Amino acid sequence: MPSESKAGPLDGIVALVTGASSGIGEATALALARCGAHVAVAARRRDRLESLAASMPSSADCLVVEADVTKEESARAMVDATVQRFERLDVLVNNAGVMLLGPVADAEVSDWERMVNLNLLGLMYSTRAALPHLLSAAQTGPRRVSDLVNVSSVAGRVALKGSAAYNATKFGVVAFSEALRKEVTGQYIRVSLVEPGGVATELMDHMRPDIRDGMRARLDQIEILQPDDVAAAIMFGITRPRHVAISEVLIRPTQQET
């Protein structure tokens, strides 16, 4: 444990970050650790998680959890492993997601299923598994408040052609988050929605080559966000006083129009 003089704003708090093997999830996990949190990092790529854990500050306590949140039992086991190691859970950052764009007419249905299963159902499974522990932390934890952060997208607010299925999953995240917020806000669980625009992550690597090349050509014309920019927005909400809830953050590159 860090000494009192070096304690961060989240000293001793327990956080779980999904999709932590790269991009926004990796940056957020590092930011949490730097602020004093114990961090469980979850994703399917264990080797990447091990590298992330090795790069944490020396004072950080990090748990690596290999998990596939598209499977309800895996999401539940991920949360159980975190609570078993750290004895509670104060913060869940649902970041795992995939973006497979393309017109509806020639779309691969398997791409739709992959996005629904990860972007929406995976987030819902993880939230359901974590909720009892977040409620407990809000009642008995040192901060007397807990945080659920759902990483959506500008695509959860603005529908564009060629993005119908991805839009559908991210609009779903927005609706789920707002409905849940109304269920638990009186119990000091803060449900926050973070909606990034263009970010330098691996999301485009999984697209069809023609779609990927077109998007990269458009994004090359502007200065896009870096994962640390989005992590900073996430951390802003988590580190507010107990009586302050940042319910929604839409964060775009300055030059991005849509």
Please name the defining characteristics of this protein:
258 residues, alpha/beta, Rossmann fold, seven-stranded parallel sheet, 7 helices, 7 strands, globular, disordered N terminus
Describe this structure in words.
- The chain is of the alpha/beta class and 258 residues long.
- It has a single domain, classed as Rossmann fold, CATH 3.40.50.720.
- The protein has seven helices and seven strands.
- The protein has a seven-stranded parallel β-sheet, sandwiched between helices.
- Helix 1 (23-34) crosses helix 7, helix 3 runs parallel beside helix 4 (109-140) and helix 4 (109-140) packs parallel to helix 5.
- The longest helix has 32 residues, at 109-140.
- The N and C termini lie far apart (44 Å).
Strand content: 5-15%
Radius of gyration (Å):
18 Å
Major sheet: order of its strands?
3-2-1-4-5-6-7
Shape: globular
Number of domains: 1
Structural class: alpha/beta
- Looking at this structure, what is the CATH superfamily? NAD(P)-binding Rossmann-like Domain
Number of strands: 7
Described by strand count, sense and barrel closure, the largest sheet is: 7 strands, parallel
Separation, N- and C-terminal Cα atoms:
44 Å
At the first level of CATH, the class is Alpha Beta
Q: What string gives the helices and strands in order?
A: EHEHEHEHEHEHHE
User: In the CATH scheme, what's the topology name?
Assistant: Rossmann fold
Q: Give the low-confidence spans.
A: 1-5
Count the helices. How many? 7
Helix content: 40-55%
At CATH's second level, what is the architecture?
3-Layer(aba) Sandwich
Average of per-residue pLDDT values: 93
